[in-house]
Amino acid sequence: MSARTFRVWRGDAEGGDFAEFDVEVNEGEVVLDVVHRIQAEQAPDLAVRWNCKAGKCGSCSAEVNGRPRLMCMTRMNVFEEDEPVTITPLRTFPVVRDLVTDVSFNYEKSRRMPAFAPPKDLRPGEYRMQQVDVERSQEFRKCIECFLCQNTCHVVRDHDENKPEFAGPRLFIRAAELDMHPLDARSDRREWAQDDQGLGYCNITKCCSDVCPENIKITDNAIIPMKERVAGERYDPLVWLGRKIFRKDKAPKSE
Amino acid sequence: MSDNTINDVEHLACDVLVIGAGGAGLRAAVEARLAGKSVIVISKSLFGKAHTVMAEGGAAAAMGNANANDNWQVHFRDTMRGGKFLNNYRMAELHAQEAPARIWELETYGALFDRTADGRISQRNFGGHEYPRLAHVGDRTGLELIRTLQQKLVSLQQDDEAAGEPESKLQVIDETTITELFTDGGAVKGAFGYRRSTGRFMAIAAPAIVLATGGIGRSFKVTSNSWEYTGDGHALALRAGARLINMEFIQFHPTGMVWPPSVRGILVTESVRGDGGVLKNANGERFMFDYIPEVFKAQYADNPEEADRWYTDPDANRRPPELLPRDEVARAINSEVKAGRGTEHGGVYLDIASRRSADYIKSRLPSMHHQFKELADVDITAAPMEVGPTCHYIMGGIEVEADTAASAVPGLYAAGEVSGGMHGSNRLGGNSLSDLLVFGKRAGEYAAAHAAAAEPPKLADEEIETAIQNALRPFGNDGENPYELQNALQAVNGRLVGIIRKADELEEALTELAALRPRIENVTAVGGRAYNPGWHLALDLRNMYLCSVTTAMAALERDESRGGHTREDAPGMNPEWRKTNLVVSLEEGAGEVRLTRQPVPQMPPELLDLFDPTELSKYMTPEEYRRDSPAGTPSAGTGPADTDSTEAEEA
Ligand code: SF4
Ligand code: SF4
Ligand code: FES
After folding, report:
1. Residue A129: band (very low, low, confident or very high) from pLDDT cuts 50, 70, 90
2. Is residue B250 part of a domain?
3. Do B484 and A40 touch (CB under 8 A)?
4. Rounded to an integer, what distance in angstroms lies between the CA atom of residue B296 and that of residue B300?
5. Which of A55, A130, B433, B499 is most buried, judging by how many CB atoms fall within 10 Å of its CB?
6. Residue B519 falls within a domain, yes or no?
7. Alpha-carbon torsion B612, B617, B618, B623, what sign?
8. Is any Cβ of chain B less than 8 angstroms from the Cβ of A238?
9. What does the pLDDT average to over A212-238?
10. Distance CA B540, CA B178 (A)
11. pLDDT of A45-76, one tens digit each?
12. Mutate which of A149, A172, A210, A220 to test ligand 2's pocket (most atoms within 8 Å of Cβ)?
């Protein structure tokens, strides 16, 4: 057991400041345990989101000493003994209160995502897929929607003006997941990612992959393959012509 | 937000109001919307974070993909055995029959389960299931279920948008807690709650309401449950006039993490055992062979050689005892630790490292591998895990009609963990995800039908005003901090109403709970209304309190041991008690909890015929299962005598 100083941002959309708490830390604890202790003993109204405390629900995202992390999966022993711990809310989303942010941006983007299109000729129970084929999409379905990647991506971090055009890495992996789904009946997932999700804004910095607590290779396994294939098809005059004919509403943009 | 806006109550209306956005609630919402009704889903957390995501192992459904001998009858049998024949047989029957269709349907919504070599849905072994039966995605099946249903809801919203329907046809309202149900002439007509982010109140008029709020686990300190599990639906239903059954039956999952202390209780999936892991005590002994109860001796191997052969040749060998139903395994671990054969931190070892290759472990159990590495510095491919029982699931819940999921209150339906009866005295692993799909669908269907025949209800200003006063009371109180009170409540339950119970301790628990009541009524919240977790907990506490009282009362009354209820002073099952359900309701007016007895529904002959009479004889009185004697309704209404208990043998 040792005493530590926690600096926790407190405030709301109007503004706020850091509050300092001297708090006890026990062996094996994670940052969220300590935040809970602050709540129980010093600040009952300290706003923080959490559910599972096991890295499975993606609720407890925050920035700890400047790094986007899940508070429930951040062990206290990653910090030096005398290092103060500073917690701030996710920067890319508007603050609701204290450590809680308004993440509705992500839900709005997923509302725009065309759903899985079931194959017309198969009834329930008739789906047949090979494990190797589902695995590529399964990697992306591990996503716990912590939105740390969304928070980190420089296209929208500190750039609210890009938000209308840009869906972000969490939604790129959703597009890739459906694109790679062995039985999804749509064939325009990549074009959609390019034209509607703003995939073109991404310049493959891989910062999203670096913060993903599920270790999803967002850039290598989703974004790059999607970009390559979009590019490949668009330089193919026949495909390009086909797209022009069938999708009059959206003129293909070049990258 | 200015004070004026915050004091305006937001008024909404819909045909079907679904309270709870876990698997059961979302499946109900899908069904009600497909039936053409307008639906509002209330989610206590963000959309897609519900406790269902914590389910790891899988969803049980007799699809017969891994073993063609499997069918609904076998699944039904396993479920009844697991529940020690206290289950509502009709629920268990519907569940076993409909689970495969509910799983296949998820594939049409986009779910991606793990596959068999011939491309079908893979199925894994689990405790109490005769054949490999759990559809799964690694060890994150619950997440797949939630994400799939979440995405299905979004796709229905997109369909509505394309068809020019208003957004209000299917709405998910997140981070909102319901504190009251409104009734009129005994039927439900709406609900009242607050948005967590602002603290603003909301009143929703609805002729049909589906409760899908999950369980009560936060009333225990060592639990696998999230903060949401405060028994809201159980308490709302009681206050609205519904009845709860089987509240004494709480499942302690045998394998929760035990070290470090901050992770105590976090779930370690049963799949570890299904995939070859074994339990050992501190002396390295594989102790489960010593704990096979008489009723299960025909199905479980009594030596390691046979148990190990079973993984590759299940037809010719009996199952390893590590895969006994959860209540048996939890009690066995408890006994080993009590006998001084526990680990340094008060658990036992769960070892898969010495039995399976590192690659196999990482591919079958990726999130366990991750969880132990991150939280406990243990590499499960190289070292055993330390595990012990954790409060996981309540079998008890709202008494419902099996086919319709309807409670005794007209218009009020319940599905998933908040409902009771399906699992009897003990739930088999894997039967929860399938339960919430089967009965979530049914609840949505029948709630929609009810709404179609009902007039749009009206809420009165006075009842809303009363609900507002109740919700704001903690701000005016001068009592204790809600976190302290939650600790006090958890301490009583953990110490006196835990995995092993005794009459005098349960009496003590009731006395201590009664002493907590005025303190909980006087709980104090400080700060403002916007996102104030202290206030939220203050309001949840009264639900936790009510559920705790019902559990302690029923546990005291049932002087036998069965499934998730073990009485040290009344060991063994009593066939007379098997015929009896304990039912809880609230007295009108004073609101005191009332406990009554009621017969368990009798299995019809065609279902009894699925069992060998020698097996039935271990659970039932002869007149119940003997076909030569007139079955009739035995003396269930009067309940078992307190003295002459005939004990079935149990380890
Ligand atoms: S790789 Fe693309 S999506 Fe990921 S952080 Fe960089 S710019 Fe954003
Ligand atoms: S992709 Fe990873 S970082 Fe992004 S939301 Fe999903 S889990 Fe979080
Ligand atoms: S609380 Fe669920 S991921 Fe941290």
Report:
1. very high
2. no
3. yes
4. 6
5. B433
6. no
7. positive
8. no
9. 83
10. 10
11. 999 999 999 999 999 999 999 999 999 999 99
12. A149
pLDDT at B260: 87
Provide, as residue numbers in chain A, all residues whose Cβ is less than 8 Å from the Cβ of B54. 52, 54, 56-57
Is residue A6 lining ligand 2, measured as CB closer than 6 Å? no
Least confident interval from A99-108, A109-118, A221-230, B635-644: B635-644
Q: Which residues of A touch B259 (CB under 8 A)?
A: 28
Give the residue carrying structure tokens 């289950």: B87
* Chain CA centroid to CA A218, Å: 10
Task: Report whether pLDDT(B535) > 50.
Answer: yes
Q: Judged by CB atoms within 8 Å, which residues 458-497 of B form the interface with A?
A: 481-484, 487
Q: Which of A26, A49, A54 sits opposite B371 (nearest CB)?
A: A54
The mean pLDDT of B220-236, rounded to a whole number, is 93
- The answer to whether A149 faces chain B, any CB pair under 8 Å, is no
Domain with CATH 3.10.20.30 in chain A: 2-101
CB pairs under 8 A, 24+ apart, for B353-356?
A: B353/B379, B353/B380, B353/B381, B353/B382, B353/B383, B353/B384, B354/B384, B355/B276, B355/B277, B355/B278, B356/B275, B356/B276, B356/B277
Instruction: Tell me the pLDDT of chain B averaged across its residues.
Output: 93
Q: Which CATH architecture has domain A2-101?
A: Roll (3.10)
Q: Where in chain A is the domain with CATH 1.10.1060.10?
A: 104-246
Look at residue B327 in the predicted model and tell me its pLDDT: 87
> What is the reported pLDDT for B642?
39
The mean pLDDT value for A192-220 works out to 96
CATH of the domain at B331: 3.90.700.10
The size of the A-B interface in CB pairs under 8 A is 175
**ipTM of the predicted structure?**
0.91
Among the partner-chain residues B157, B262, B371, the one whose CB lies closest to the CB of A28 is B262
- Asked whether residue B331 is domain-assigned, the answer is yes
Per-residue pLDDT band for A235 (boundaries 50, 70, 90) equals low
B140 vs A29, A44, A142: nearest CB: A142
Nearest bound ligand to the CA of residue A53:
3
**Pick from B436, B307, B308: which is nearest to B25 by CA?**
B436
Q: How long a stretch of residues is chain A?
A: 255
Asked whether residue B349 carries a pLDDT value surpassing 60, the answer given is: yes
CA B264 distance to own-chain centroid: 20
Shortest-distance atom of ligand 2 to CA A144? 7
Q: Which of residues 40-79 of A touch B (CB under 8 A)?
A: 40-41, 44-59, 73, 75
Cβ-based neighbours of B244, under 8 Å, separated by 6 or more: B234, B237, B238, B396, B397, B398, B399, B420, B550, B583, B584, B585
Condensed to tens digits (0 to 9), the pLDDT of residues B84-111 reads 999 999 999 999 999 999 999 999 999 9
Question: Residue B203: in which H helix or E strand, if any?
Answer: strand B201-205
CA of A55 to the centre of ligand 3 (A): 4
The token pair that represents B383 in the structure block: 């070292």
Q: Provide the pLDDT for residue A238.
A: 52
What range defines the domain where residue B382 resides?
256-390
Number of domains chain B is built from: 1
Just give the CATH number of A104-246: 1.10.1060.10
For chain A, the C-alpha Rg in angstroms (whole number) is 21
Best residue among A145, A152, A153 to mutate for probing ligand 2, ranked by most atoms within 8 Å of CB: A145
pLDDT of residue B133: 97
